[in-house]
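Ticket #358: bound-state structure for zinc ion.
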Amino acid sequence: MPQLFCQSCKKSGTKLKRCGSCSKVWYCDSVCQKNNWPIHLVDCNLGRPITTADRLVAFAYQDKFPIDPGVLRDYEFDAALTIDAQTKLLNMYMGLILGLGVKAKALHQARLSGKLIEFVKSSFGAAAPLPEGHEEYYPWFLKHSYLLSPSLVHNEPSIYKEQSYVDSWRFIGGSHDDDYVQISKQLETWPDTRFTEAEEDELALSYKALVHAVSFDELHGAFAAGNMPALFAAHGMPLKSRFLLGLFGPGAPLQYKPVWDLKEFAWGQPNRAKPKSHMRYGFNNCRNEGEVDALKAVYKRIFSHPNADPLAWYDAYEKGKLFEYMNNATKLRPKERFERLLKDVNRCVGPLQSAELN
Ligand SMILES: [Zn+2]
Ligand SMILES: [Zn+2]
Ligand SMILES: [Zn+2]
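RESOLUTION: The complex was predicted; output attached.
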């Protein structure tokens, strides 16, 4: 029989007692068992599913980085761009769990109800002084709490957006001296649109790999020169989507701006001004809001299809063949109505209508 040791204090002995639930580990006494419980429970017969909060707590007690994919996803380690940011995030959680004694169940419920940021703030806010050894991580968290709520980056409040821009800028190698205003000026020409999920995944993964492979100047230079597709390809990540190729290709990004605007409009992004150009894609022919919604729905259907080809759509638009193209991509019913809406729609229809200039 191999030498038995206490799972908690690691001392070996002859009078050790087994864990009554799983019979797999041994302890000196109930004190050692209690100390080890936050770690052992993820391997024991708990009689309920183990949550990612349970796992995060177990990692924290072992002073280990939470390598579990579920923990990395649920507690937004994946959203932290750098090892440094991930380490600080972990130290914040450790302050919460070890310093303030926060339990897995409370953490789990805060996350499920979408109130993780508020939970962290109220826990630390009530603690005076801050837990020893973790004092610096809560102030850091206050600046970077957007990490725990990626949706905030895209909505309000803008302080989350500003910090995330600054962090991303530095992450890709931008100067630490640039502030949000300078950065957003430079970012204005970058594509900001409603991609389909496949496009988003392709772009996000490629970007992530690319920023590790090239210098900031290379990236910036390639973008300005319309050489992004070549840069991606040179690093073994050729872009496949025609839309992305067009987006970054020669003449980009301005050439295909109408397509992005239209996609964004069709998806109905709240709090966004209507793009001035959208009136031309048939919306100026609509007689009421019902027709606007019907046309929007058709655009959304066409652009969200896995084989969507917005550049082919753009070609058809330029040739004044939108109805034919769109009817081919998706059945337009009632046909007569869409024929009327999409009739004579192309960008050569003359001066902008006054409604477009608002
Ligand atoms: Zn022991
Ligand atoms: Zn057990
Ligand atoms: Zn930062």
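RESOLUTION NOTES: Residues 197-252 form one domain.
TICKET STATUS: resolved
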